[in-house]
Amino acid sequence: MIGRLNHVAIVVPNLAAARLMYHEVLGAEVSEIVALPAHGVSIVFVDLPNARIELLHPLGEDSPVAAFLERNAAGGMHHVCYEVADIAAARDNLVAQGLRILGDGEPHLGAHDKPVLFLHPKDLHGTLVEIEQA
Question: Number of structural domains, the chain?
Fold first, then answer.
């Protein structure tokens, strides 16, 4: 059901510094910093030949990643995102197999302006998983 790895998301305490590290030290191609108020984060995408790294930083105190950064002051891996062909069919299949969808269970537009859902980390061995319609 899941397709290719779309991205690995890493929460960072300083987005500008992380962006420079990936670009200047690691030599990766990186996007500019983009604020996504609807998601409560600022992001940078690091393009790799086979996937992306999404660097996340809270945008305001109500950000969904603010609590993560409070618990992990140095930052860390937040979630992995896999592509699916049909997000509604994938959701229905996963729910039928006992996995829990976070939120209201309905897809919403993610950072790529494509429908996404998040799966409960307790159902997936402690990893928050995002699925994105490709």
Answer: 1
C-beta of residue 74 within 8 angstroms of C-beta of residue 65: no
Q: Which residue range is the domain that position 32 belongs to?
A: 5-133
Given the residues 54, 83, 130, 132, select the one marked as catalytic.
130
Alpha helices of 53-119 — where are they, by DSSP H?
A: 66-71, 87-96
- The separation between the first and the last C-alpha atoms of the chain, rounded to the nearest angstrom, is 12
Number of CB atoms found within 10 A of residue 109's CB: 11
Looking at residue 33, what DSSP letter applies?
P
Chain center to CA of 92:
21
Q: What is the pLDDT of residue 61?
A: 84
> The domain spanning residue 63 has which CATH number?
3.10.180.10
> For the stretch 15-49, what's the b/e string if a residue is b when 16 or more beta carbons lie within 10 angstroms of its beta carbon?
beebbebbeeeeebebeeeeeeeebbbbbbbbeee
Q: Is 130 a catalytic residue?
A: yes
Q: Does the global pTM surpass 0.85?
A: yes
Confidence of residue 117 (pLDDT cuts 50, 70, 90): very high
